[in-house]
Each structure stands twice: as structure tokens, then as C-alpha cells.
Amino acid sequence: MRKSGRPTMVDVAADAGVSLKTVSRVVNGQPHVDPALAARVTASAEKLGFHRNALAASLRSGSRDTLGFVSADLTNTFYMTIAAAASAVAVGRGMQLIIASSEEDAATERTLTLDLCQRRVGGLIVVPTAADHTYLQAEVQRGTPVVFLDRPARGIQADELLLDNRGGARAALAELLAAGHRRIAVLLDKPDIFTMVERRAGVEEAFAAAGLTVDERVVVADMHTPQAAREAMTRLLASAEPPTAVFCANNRSTIGALEAIVAADADIALSGFDDFELSRLVPRRIRIVDYDAGELGRRAAELLLQRMVDPDGVEPTTVLLPTRLVDRGREVRPRG
Amino acid sequence: MRKSGRPTMVDVAADAGVSLKTVSRVVNGQPHVDPALAARVTASAEKLGFHRNALAASLRSGSRDTLGFVSADLTNTFYMTIAAAASAVAVGRGMQLIIASSEEDAATERTLTLDLCQRRVGGLIVVPTAADHTYLQAEVQRGTPVVFLDRPARGIQADELLLDNRGGARAALAELLAAGHRRIAVLLDKPDIFTMVERRAGVEEAFAAAGLTVDERVVVADMHTPQAAREAMTRLLASAEPPTAVFCANNRSTIGALEAIVAADADIALSGFDDFELSRLVPRRIRIVDYDAGELGRRAAELLLQRMVDPDGVEPTTVLLPTRLVDRGREVRPRG
DNA sequence: CTGAAAGCGCTAACAT
DNA sequence: ATGTTAGCGCTTTCAG
């Protein structure tokens, strides 16, 4: 037992009267060890309170037993659901997941990502915030597989796992148009965000397919908070020709719009992208573009693990995860 | 450049024509290096695409630059908010947070926790699921500080950071009693969970303080899902003598109870422990026992960092984080 | 089946 | 201000 206070394999070997290598074999459950010796080693390890130093092990063996997940927002349930699913896959293979978050800051993303590389993670799942990812190119070439999630990456050849943003929005709008709605408001977050570009394109496509065009006067962008969406919706409802339907391009917009609609007791159809907690409790029947976030995380982790085993398996691919339209909320009857 | 494909400090040193140690100094930003040499080293490092191996560094130096967070449920926003706050503190000090989750399984918790110890984390934040934590005693004594979060730990001397569960419940009940309510339903999750024991005790204390006793006929336990709570609430509302108020001991119960109340359009006061997303959108005015989850995470991380610096600072303590009663939801006027 | 020696990539402790 | 040497704790040869 050294100054560090922590027993090492050398200490265990000395105590058990065997060589270092035998301890290593026993600790790692390798075969071809005499049961009697193994028992002695186990007993010594137990007695001394030995715990193998995983850092030293992977330094020497070059094995990588952690995955890194760089989220864009730690408190966003969407990303955390993904992380949970990815973590489960990793733990199922005896690995662990380090979760970090850029909090939507490109510089932070870069720092955290390179930091994880210095920790020699086996692979990275990244929700990209940075506009350019050439800084990762070298790492990828040196054998750290990277999967980009939810948003595409630029300046780098890597796997991407995205939602079918365009198809989901198109389906929602097609349904509203089929129901006869023409004056359909659209609430968007920052219009340069990838998902917004795609969802807006889906809206356009649905209108085009119906031989119609979007009424730009009721398209509102930069709805980054529910509050902004609520105010915009309130204004739309109070206008001379209020829309008969609204499409909210993310759940924050949906929540804000709903607050306005409920407060004004307006008769308006609502479809929104992204489900949210308590959507079933909303006092209106609404339609939601839903998807399986956990599936996204599972697929990302599995893709990573596969790339770790077989780096040059197939070309990097972009996978689009399908969405589906579901009912949420319920009509509330008048009180008293 | 070796077979591994990754350049090491030795490679950089050779390229720059300096010694290994000089490279180390430059890479780590240590003083007393001739600017000219430093520039040469930086250039070589850049050229070769050198990235310091953090594993090797901390193996040699014995420094610990990750913290471990063992959650009980990855998709629970409460724990993730805590993790986000703890992560921010860690990153602010150049460390990172490894997040794992026991998913409420004691054996998994043990495995993950010991695994993190083998990775030589600097400290651990644990939401305990296991009934006994003597298995961590040895690690704590060897210098890995552990902070238990949200629930107390047994069989071990360590810091605990808990919510004032009892006080929060007592305040909610005191308010209902002061408003004249007497027949107050109580919806509890599994009654042997620590938080439930405490919150229930708070309920009892409020009744006792008012010289009254809890009406056990309207106390329902084992409400683990919103569905269960909804069914229980529906039954209570349909009974001969329905309660005039209900206290829900966690947000899942609150959500389920609300569904039943809204569906039945019942006139009943509701107070619930834990805020939840969209609580402001609920079509009833309700009262919530709220608290600052982020503060819990920040305090946990800071406590850990302090213990890392000064292991024998003060005795392990139990901190109770205060709660407050807030208004949520809004009355919805009848439609049409 | 077991062991001795070498070394993963880095930093600490000492030179110089 | 720079370099040399040793060694963190483990796994990987390679020899018995």
C-alpha cells in the first residue's frame, strides 16, 4: 500500500503471494487461472479494498469505454430523453456516457468536444451549435466516430440522425388544408435554425401541393419563448381577419399560442410540432407532430458503437426519423 | 508519430527539437518558457494535430477532473435540472460531469457508482436508491467525497442535500385548513419512499397544529402514475361525501388529479408538491409547493469541490432546502 | 497455467 | 530556462 492510500495490483499481488499479472488476470476475469490462486487473489483484493484503476487500464490498453454526448441544452427534455436512451445502450455494453452541454454556444461546444476527445472517448454524439465543424475533422480521421443529432453538421463528413422535420410539418399542414382552412397562421422560432428552415419548407410544400400559397401576413418568426408566442397569437386573434388555424413550429410556440387561445376563448384549430408534457391536459383538442426521441438516442449510440468496431464500414449516412400526427388535449365543457 | 496514429508529446518534442518536458510546459501553459521555444512547440503541435491525452495526465498527476452524478431517473426533469446546474459549476472549474442513472434500481446504482470510482472521479453526487450505502464507505474514506441528494443515505457518514419536504407539505395543508377545508384528500406515491414519509408527516403536523386529525378515509397511497391518481381522484369525486380540497404529494399525482377534476368539472381546491411544465396553463387556479432545483445542483457541486480541496473541513452535514407556496394555473371561462 | 519485463503518455522531482 | 530520469497503475508482449 503506497502513499496514495489506494491499494494497487502490486499490493494485492504481494499480499496474495502471486505475480502482478495473475492479479490482473483474476481482476479481469480472464481464463486459465488456477481456481485456488484466483480465490487467494480475490480474498486479498477484498481484504485490501482494492479497486482497479480504470484510467491506467485504458491508458495501457488503448481501449475506450466512455461515450460523449454534447447536448445543446441540458434542461431540454427532448435532448435528455435522447441522452437517457443513449446512456442505456452504453451501460448495456459496459460503457458510460459523459453528458456535456454547449447551452447553444458554439465556442463552448468546441471546448467541450475537444475536451472529451482529450479524455479519449470512444465516440461522440453531438447536437451541433457551431456553424462549422472542421475542427473535428482531424479527430474523426484519427478514429473517434462522431454522430450529429437533430441538426446537420457543416464542414465534416459524419453520420447524421435527424427528424423528418419537413415531412412532419407538411403532413400537419396538409391536414389543416384538407379540413378547409386557408388562413393558417404559422409561428416559427428563429428562422435560420435548421429545424425551422425545414419545417417552414414543409409548410410551403403542403400549400404548393394544394395549389395554394402561404399567407405571409400571418407568418410570425422569432418566437423563442412561450411568452413571445402568446403575445403574437393574441395579436393575430384580435386582428381584423383572424386566422382559422395555426401551425406552431415547436412546442414552446404551441404552449404560448395555447395560452392566448384559451385566454381569448378563441375558436381556432391548432397543430404543433413536438409533443410536450401535459399535452393531454390542454383544454382544446389539438394535433401534434410526434416522434420517438428515445429511438433517436438509441440509434445514435448504436451507430457509434458500430463505427467504433468497424470504422470504415459504410459511408457516413443521414438518417431521417419519421414523425406521426397524433391527437392531444380535450375539449372542456363550460363550468357552472 | 507511433503506430497508434495519434501524435504524443514525444513526437511534438522531436519535431520542435526540444525536450519532452518543454512540450509539457507549453501545452499546460506553465511559465518560465522562452517565447521563441514556446512558439516552435505550438507550431509543431498544431502541425501534427497533437491533443494531450488527459487520461495519461491524470494518471501521472493523480488529479481528478471529473465529477460523477448518479441520478435515479434520467428523464425526470427535476434531476436533470440539478445535473445541469452541477455540470455548469464543474465546467466553470475546468472539470466535467459524468451523468449516470440507476433508474431506481439499487444494484444498478451500486454498479455505476463503483464504476465511477474506478474511473477516479473527484467526487460523487448520488440520488440514492439503495437502502444501504456501506459499500461506499471505503471510497469515502479513501478520499472520494460523496453528496447524497434528495434522499438520505443509510450506513454512511456523508453530506446530504434535501428539500424541506415536511415544511412544504405542512405549509400547503395549513393554508387549506385556514381556508376552512376539513375534508382534505391526500394523494401519495409509494408510502415508504423518503419524500412521501416526510410530506405525509408535514400533513399530519398541519392538522395537529390546527387541533384536528387527518381523515384517513380520503388518504390514498401508491399513486405512482398520473393514471392511478386520475382514477383515485375520479372515485373520490364520485363518493357520497367528496372532499372539498386535495393535496397531491408529487407532480405526477397533481397531473392525474387535475385530469379527473377538469373532466368532472369539480369545484375543489388543489395544492400539490413539485411544480411542473405547463402548470401555468392548467385551467384551474392551484397552489404549488415550489423550490429551486438548480440551487440544489449548484450547492451539491460546490460542496463536493470544497470537500475535494479540504476533505476534513467540517463534519458531514444535512442541508434542508426551503420551499415556497406559489400560484399556478388560471380559471377558464365557459366557451360559447 | 504463471511470471518478468517493457511501456502506454504523461507529469514530478530533480538536475543543470 | 531547459532537460533527464523515474514512475503513475495497469496491460501487453514474450518466456517459461
UniProtKB/TrEMBL annotation, chains A, B:
HTH lacI-type domain sequence ranges: 7-61
UniProt entry tagged with the keyword Transcription regulation: yes
Coiled-coil residue windows: none
Pfam families: LacI, Peripla_BP_3
Any one GO molecular function term: DNA-binding transcription factor activity
Keywords: DNA-binding, Transcription, Transcription regulation
Top-rank taxon: Bacteria
Gene3D superfamilies cross-referenced by the UniProt entry: 3.40.50.2300, lambda repressor-like DNA-binding domains
InterPro entries: HTH_LacI, LacI/GalR-like_sensor, Lambda_DNA-bd_dom_sf, Peripla_BP_I
Protein name: Catabolite control protein A
Gene: ccpA_6
